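User: I'm writing a short methods note and want a consistent example. For Cobalamin biosynthesis protein CobD, I'll paste the sequence; you return only the structure tokens, no commentary, since I'll be parsing the reply automatically.
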Amino acid sequence: MPPFTQLALTLAAGVLLDRLIGEPRRYHPLVGFGRLAGALERRLNRPAFGIARGALAWSLAVLPLVLIALWLRQQGGGVALATDAILLWFALGARSLVEHAQAVATPLQAGDLAEARRRVGWIVSRDTAALTPAQVAAAGTESVLENGNDAIFGTLFWFLVGGGPGTLLFRLANTLDAMWGYRTERYLHFGRLAARIDDVLGWLPARLTALSYALLGHTRSALHSWRHQAPAWKSPNAGPVMAAGAGALQVQLGGEAPYHGQMTQRPALGTGAAPDAASLVAAIALVRRALVLWVALALLAGGLVWGLAHA
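Assistant:
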């Protein structure tokens, strides 16, 4: 069987594992990795040579694990297949993303604002105690759109590029960016490399995610929002994803949001009405359709490669 065909079938198997089983409830590998990263940061983060220390911490956290994955994959046969499938299952967060988003949408639809605020606080970093229903819906919708790229489509892209080791590299780099990639006094220098590596690894997947949202939603609105609104967003990858997603849903995102006790004014994303529970449900459905599209295209490409190999 051609390598890409095998990779496409393994991708479908990993997505199916995530759909049937979801993330490990206990002893999740990314939780353990987060503890390792935290220990390295506490040990190495000092004012002097901050960028170099951050680079060393990133290398110590990521490279040994990726090298082990590469070694396992080089064993071939069932070991290689199991390595790819298990790493994709661990890295993929499709079911978890949907479950967390639905846990916000359900009480919001029922008018239970307190519970909706509590649950959206699990998936966003902004202050949630005083959010209005529209702000809760906006926070949840933005999280679904952005994490659709990080937890699903970026993961699948790097799996198709480099199998299990590729997807592991992407998810670990993305995790370190989420932990260290802040422009605060503590992380400004130490986390700079982690932020830049995540930007580079996520550049192409983010634009493929944005294109997927555009094709499967209101295409003209999505492309317009992507072109005109994404450049104003501070993140080079989150901007296209969230702008295209907001346009595809024809909903207004961005704007004011409370962070660390202060209201932060962010650029507007999308067009149309203010978000509500239906917007969040529509975002979940959009991500699900995009996942089906990616799996179908991977299997189609794998089938074509297999056919050409046996022509």
